[in-house]
Amino acid sequence: MFYPRRIGDWVVTTPFLRGLRAKFPEAEITAVASAKSAAVMPLIPFIDYFHILGRPEKIGQNLKLLGFLLFSGKRDLYIDLDPNPAFSRGGWIFSFLTRARVKGAFARSGNEAFQIRVPFAEGECTMLERYARLAKALDISYEARPELKAFKADMEMAHEKIGSLGLSGRPKIMIHPGDLKRESGVRWPLEKFADLSRHLMAHGAALFFLAGPNEKDSVQEFVRQIGLDVSCVIGPRPLREAAAFMLEMDLFVSSLNGASHVAAALGVSTFSFYMGYDWRVWRIAGERHFGLVGEENNCRVIAVDEAYESIKKIIGSASLK
């Protein structure tokens, strides 16, 4: 399988991968991903191996991948998981390098010779619906429920650390205020996260804050400004460890991003701030996943009071966890 995208992109493929594994339980399933999604690959329970397609300057990494493609034998099935209609040069190249007997993908320029080509739906549809179409074309079962695994040692470590804090009876909420490299319209403002955090603390919630790569200093400063000790900052950590801490939480709160999808795929309840487009295409489905929607390309307009009242109802409900 080939799909050089980000963490969240891979997470939403997991319902398809689960169906693929169920249909071919004895198959060796290998994925090719990008460096941006490398951290999530070990958490996907339906693949056996993965290789990373690096940037052009990552010569050693790319030579290793090329060697695998050239010398590991022909593949029985090659699947390009990219659900976007634009021509994919990488997908076109890899379709030849795998020398697969059968090739499948969404229909786009460059893969006219594929035996399985899935037409794009008319109008917008969610990513999960797109993979449902691919699953149908391959005659595999499909349940629109993303799924990731966590590792026992990591879960034991996180459980010990959180359990030692004596938080019994208090709702535990992890907030991811960062993802600071993304465009501003995609991110709910830090000052609103600060106000929301103060409201939730006053409500008795125990708060933890996820810091992604290169976000440690900014998240720690954010935590100091709202009057908490930096010991409540989780990370930066390897994603597999961050996932274990997510599992200790009652609710994960963030602007919609890869971490949101990871938490949901682990079975953690989520609350996300959405732009209109993301709500229609990337929304996290399920009765334990919540959120508010802003403007078409801007979630920043969502009000703090509206978010707080929504989350207060969620953490007071019996179905939270």
Describe the structure.
The chain is of the alpha/beta class. The protein has helices at about 5-10, 15-25, 60-70, 90-95, 125-135, 150-165, 190-200, 215-225, 240-245, 260-265, 275-280, 305-315; strands at about 30-35, 50-55, 75-80, 100-105, 115-120, 170-175, 205-210, 235, 250-255, 270-275, 290-295. Strand 10 (about 270-275), helix 11 and strand 11 (about 290-295) form a beta-alpha-beta unit. The longest helix has 13 residues, at about 60-70. It is globular and about 60 Å long. It starts with 6 loop residues before the first helix and ends in a 6-residue tail after the last helix.
Quick structural summary:
The chain is α/β, with parallel strands linked by helices.
Features:
Rossmann fold, 11 strands, about 325 residues, 2 domains, alpha/beta
Strand elements, count: 11
- The Cα radius of gyration reads 21 Å
Oligomer: single chain
Q: What order do the SSEs take from the amino end to the carboxyl end, as H and E?
A: HHEEHEHEEHHEHEHEHEHEHEH
Which SSEs are present, and which pair or pack?
Blueprint: H1 7-11, H2 14-23, E1 30-34, E2 49-53, H3 59-71, E3 77-80, H4 89-97, E4 102-106, E5 116-118, H5 127-137, H6 152-163, E6 172-176, H7 190-202, E7 206-210, H8 216-225, E8 233-234, H9 239-246, E9 251-255, H10 258-265, E10 270-274, H11 276-282, E11 289-293, H12 304-315
Parallel strand pairs: 1-2, 3-4, 4-5, 6-7, 6-9, 7-8, 9-10, 10-11
